[in-house]
């Protein structure tokens, strides 16, 4: 409120300062409301932190609710001849692989040309490319007066040419080098009528041909040929990448590493959720500080439901409880993972571990049960969103109360100002009257210097 500088002029009193003090006193009524609003805002922030931790646990839990996780296979290779990756159709097993030769692309270097600037043909011509697989044979149109670079560019611009063209300087001249785009014997280029198209070639030179080859290797003694070094059909469900000649031992086995990591993430994310809830509901007696959500019923409800699910028994699996897999529920509510016990369960049968977590359907296993609970807790109508909505409604109500109180204060101060103005005027009038009477009394007989002689 702006100070009223005219108050007190008539009376000589500090009515303006008094009014400001009354204003400050009235405004102090707003502080408790502001503190309550801040408390609710802190609660909303705390609920958001808890929601983030709950969502993190939900993500980790969803990974365990995927049956494909427990059916996955991994590959390991001893030796440098191949690399491998297993797909869903692969079967566990061990394979001895002997690579005799890699697949290569056929190439053809044409007869030599002395200058890059020389025009090779004085009329339009057709460069005929021939392949081992004659279905690939193709003619490339060469415009009149083309140089060797023009021929190269024409080939590379032709999407059906099935070769890549470049120019090689062999020290005596320039050759057009054609490389098949695909590896293998059938995709190899075997001939080209370059000497017919280009009049400027050195006729005594011959084209240099390098035949394309198929990859040849053995899998457990069985001979296999492939036009490509990427082989997807030699071993069912396994993609092989031939790296070089030599021997390798390929092992395909259940991918227990991914399962182990998913379980560890599950335990870690739950403990992070528990730590977050503990921090938000804790009371530090030494410092006298309380967590933002101490005593909050929504947090207690969330912890209770999750603890109930974690302690429940799962039917239809060799493992009935989390403890059977080495996951123990501590006294403080956190989880502890015994990696040795989990490793033993995975070594015995990863499928049974999957039956415990994922079950036969999305809701049968432990992870499915938890997922249903987490969906409810994080739903727009769930306990957490309900608590956040309650705090937001409380803030709205407090804001309305703040506005009403502020308006009431303004009305009160305005009334005080009017009353003080009236008081100031009345006192000013009284002062004037007092001054007038004093003046008049001073002129009465006996009030002057000679008044004493009358006595």
Automatic annotation (TrEMBL):
Instruction: Give its localization.
Output: Secreted; Bacterial flagellum
**Keyword set for this entry?**
Bacterial flagellum, Cell projection, Cilium, Coiled coil, Flagellum, Secreted
Domain Flagellar hook-associated protein 2 C-terminal: residue ranges: 212-432
InterPro entries, per this entry?
A: Flagellin_hook_IN_motif, FliD, FliD_C, FliD_N
**Domain Flagellar hook-associated protein 2 N-terminal stretches:** 11-105
| Coiled coil ranges | 381-408
Binding partners and assembly:
Homopentamer.
Q: Spell out the family assignment given in the record's similarity comment.
A: Belongs to the FliD family.
For this entry, the protein name equals: Flagellar hook-associated protein 2
């Amino acid at each position: 409120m702006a100070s009223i500088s005219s108050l007190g002029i008539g009376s000589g009193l500090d009515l303006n300062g008094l009014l400001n003090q009354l204003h400050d006193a009235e405004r102090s009524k707003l502080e408790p409301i502001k503190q309550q609003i801040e408390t609710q805002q802190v609660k909303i922030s705390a609920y958001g932190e808890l929601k983030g931790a709950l969502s993190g646990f939900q993500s980790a839990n969803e990974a365990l609710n995927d049956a494909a996780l427990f059916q996955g296979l991994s590959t390991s290779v001893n030796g440098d001849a191949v690399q491998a990756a297993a797909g869903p159709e692969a079967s566990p097993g061990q394979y001895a692989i002997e690579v005799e030769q890699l697949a290569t692309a056929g190439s053809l270097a044409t007869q030599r040309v002395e200058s890059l600037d020389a025009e090779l043909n004085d009329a339009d011509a057709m460069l005929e490319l021939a392949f081992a697989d004659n279905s690939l044979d193709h003619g490339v149109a060469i415009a009149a007066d083309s140089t060797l670079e023009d021929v190269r560019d024409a080939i590379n611009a032709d999407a059906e040419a099935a070769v890549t063209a470049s120019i090689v300087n062999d020290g005596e001249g320039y050759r057009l080098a054609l490389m098949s785009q695909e590896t293998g014997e059938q995709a190899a280029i075997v001939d080209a009528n370059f000497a017919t198209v280009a009049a400027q070639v050195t006729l005594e030179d011959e084209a240099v041909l390098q035949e394309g080859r198929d990859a040849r290797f053995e899998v457990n003694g069985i001979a296999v040929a492939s036009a490509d070094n990427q082989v997807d059909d030699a071993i069912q469900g396994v993609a092989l990448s031939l790296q070089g000649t030599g021997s390798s031992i390929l092992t395909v086995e259940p991918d227990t590493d991914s399962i182990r990591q998913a379980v560890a993430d599950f335990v870690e994310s739950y403990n992070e959720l528990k730590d977050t809830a503990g921090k938000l509901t804790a009371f530090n007696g030494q410092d006298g500080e309380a967590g933002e959500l101490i005593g909050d019923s929504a947090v207690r409800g969330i912890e209770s439901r999750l603890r109930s699910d974690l302690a429940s028994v799962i039917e239809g699996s060799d493992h009935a409880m989390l403890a059977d897999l080495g996951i123990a529920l501590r006294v403080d509510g956190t989880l502890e993972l015994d990696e040795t016990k989990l490793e033993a369960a995975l070594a015995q049968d990863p499928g049974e571990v999957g039956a415990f977590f994922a079950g036969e359907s999305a809701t049968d296993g432990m992870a499915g049960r938890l997922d249903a609970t987490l969906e409810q807790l994080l739903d727009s109508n769930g306990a957490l969103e309900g608590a956040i909505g309650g705090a937001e409604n409380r803030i709205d109500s407090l804001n309305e109360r703040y506005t009403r109180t502020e308006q009431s204060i303004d009305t009160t101060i305005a009334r005080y100002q009017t009353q003080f103005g009236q008081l100031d005027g009345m006192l000013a009038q009284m002062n004037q009257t007092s001054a007038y009477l004093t003046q008049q009394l001073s002129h009465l007989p006996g009030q002057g210097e000679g008044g004493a002689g009358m006595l």
